[in-house]
Amino acid sequence: MSSHTNLKGTQMKNLLAPGAVALATLTAGAVFAEPGVPPLIYGVQVEQLEYRLGENDEDVLVWDFDAMVGNDELRLVFRSEAEMETSSNDFETLENQLRLQMPISTFFDAVVGAHASTPTEGPNRYNLVVGVKGLAPQWFEIDADLYLSEYPFGRFEAEYEALLTNRLILTPSLEVNMPFKDDIEAGQAAGGATIEIGARLSYDLVGRAISPYVGVNYEKSFGGTADLIEAAGGQSDNLSFVVEIGRAHV
């Protein structure tokens, strides 16, 4: 584990479920090894578990979490991300990854793994993942990955926690998906980026253990990707309001 994990890993963000959605028990800890042997570290980090109130009553349940086990030098990480329409229980997106993560500098880790995209409607896609994850200057959390297959694409994610007061926190986020090759069946066109911008305002009620928040999320596709989405009867942009009942740091 690199130094950035020591700085931020102790503040793993675990978002609690909204409303009646049950959240699985979160665990984190370390088993001490023999002297000179890195201890085994394990845990679950839930980045998002939220309800998005969209336009035209198109509400979506979203999750984004990592489960990891390993040590300072090498970690095995399972990552799951999904957007599920609450009216039909169909997955607009469902992505699962198995990744190895290892330090390459003081603030960054290298990532390599396998990725599976299996939405309810649309094609299944499988990729090799290579990338980097860590802290950029000014404490921006960065995750930049290349997904390599017959239909390659790149993904860049950035997030920043701005402490407005000791309890009030504004967290802006940015995600950019860039297809490198046309994938008509999946509604993706080469060079037609999809950008997702979000902002969440949380308030620490009990330390960092309970932090309810609200926010907004805006997603827009460009170029040929937008044309394909609209030709299929969809919207190339969407604004939604985010509702969450808590955030915990372990």
Euclidean distance between termini CA atoms: 17 Å
**How large, in whole angstroms, is the Cα Rg?**
18 Å
What string, H for helix and E for strand, traces the elements in order? Answer: HEEEEEEEEEEEEEEHEE
**Oligomerization state:** single chain
Largest sheet: 12 strands, antiparallel, barrel
Low-pLDDT stretches are 1-28
Give the helix level as a range of percent. under 10%
Give the strand content: over 45%
The main sheet orders its strands as 3-4-5-6-7-8-9-10-12-13-14-15
- Average per-residue pLDDT, rounded, comes to 84
Number of strands: 16
Supply the number of helical segments: 2
Structural class call reads mainly beta
- What is the overall shape? globular
Provide a compact summary of the structure.
This protein is 6% helix and 56% strand. With 250 residues, it is mainly beta. A hairpin with a 6-residue loop joins strand 3 (40-53) and strand 4 (60-70).
Descriptive account of the structure:
- The chain has 250 residues and is mainly β.
- Helix content is 6%, strand content 56%.
- It has a twelve-stranded antiparallel beta barrel with strand order 3-4-5-6-7-8-9-10-12-13-14-15. A two-stranded antiparallel sheet has the order 1-16.
- A hairpin with a 4-residue loop joins β4 and β5.
- It starts with a helix and ends with a strand.
Notable characteristics:
250 residues; mainly beta; 12-stranded antiparallel barrel; two-stranded antiparallel sheet; 2 helices; globular
